[in-house]
Amino acid sequence: MRHRRPKLQRQVGWLGWRLLSRTVLGLAFLLVLGPFVPVAISAFDSGLPGEQGFQGFTIDWFSIALTRPDFQSGLIVSVKVAGGAAAVALLIGVASAFAMTRGPRWARGATFAGFVMSPVVIPQFLISLAMLQLLSVMGVRLGIAGLIAVHGAFISPFVVRAISASLADQGGVYEWAAMSLGADRLKVLRTVTLPLIRPALGAAVIIAFTLSFVNVPLSLFLAPSGARTLPIIMFQELEFSLSPVLAALAVLLAIPITGAVLFIERIFKVRVLT
């Protein structure tokens, strides 16, 4: 006689909790993304700043944003800084994550973790001001390389979180199995550990690049006068006027950033938006 499998019973209040969590998540998305809606509308509005209502559809602001020399030079500087900072953050983050999950007892404690994650806790303007004063006392002029180093140190905790979570999830079982079969540590790292954490590595690089690219406080204090990043140029122009060109540029920047996040979720199976 065949026995029927019992149906799974949902806990009392499960549906209500799910509706509440989805509502809170939706409100959070609305709070974060809602202000972008009028910016996107003004990017396609043919009216000048100060005119009431939508005057007409146009894409002229996008062509202006793409052809302005200061925007082009700022984009090049931002890409260089963000790319270099992502590489620095990846080196620091991977090493710290391995120490926190595979290292000695003192490295796996709360003290070392607090030290590694401290750049997130300290306000950015304090980091910038302290670095600026230190370099001024030492008589050192901070260039692009120094800005890359500061950006990399600041965004490294986000890489540490992504990599350490991936290392903790896989638990080292496969690594011990490979070493028990005769593989040395370097081969285990190359053939077992890195392939297992590849999704986290890809996600960490994209997140680090994005965080460095859009950073304003660190760059505002430490960027050389002749090499301003794109967010600084936009911020300084906002002090004088709310130009539709800036709205068009914001839309142009939002498209690749959103695409990168969707790429992380689709290819690397790392959930960022939901």
Description:
The structure is a single chain. The chain has a single domain (56-267), classed as Orthogonal Bundle (MetI-like fold), CATH 1.10.3720.10. The chain contains 14 helices and no strands. The mean pLDDT is 82. With 274 residues, it is mostly helical. α4 packs across α11 and α11 (198-213) runs antiparallel to α14 (244-267). The protein starts with 13 loop residues before the first helix and ends in a 7-residue tail after the last helix.
Offer a quick outline of the entry.
It contains 14 helices and no strands. The chain has 274 residues and is mostly helical.
Low-confidence stretches: none
Write down the CATH class: Mainly Alpha
Portion in helices: over 70%
Question: What distance separates the N and C termini?
Answer: 45 Å
Specify the number of helices.
14
Helix/strand order: HHHHHHHHHHHHHH
What's the average pLDDT? 82
Secondary structure class reads: mainly alpha
Q: Any idea what the shape is? A: globular
Number of strands: 0
Domain module tally: 1
Any idea of the CATH topology?
MetI-like fold
**Roughly how many Å is the radius of gyration?**
24 Å
Name of the CATH homologous superfamily: MetI-like
- Which architecture name does CATH use? Orthogonal Bundle
- Biggest sheet character: none
* Beta-strand share of residues: under 5%
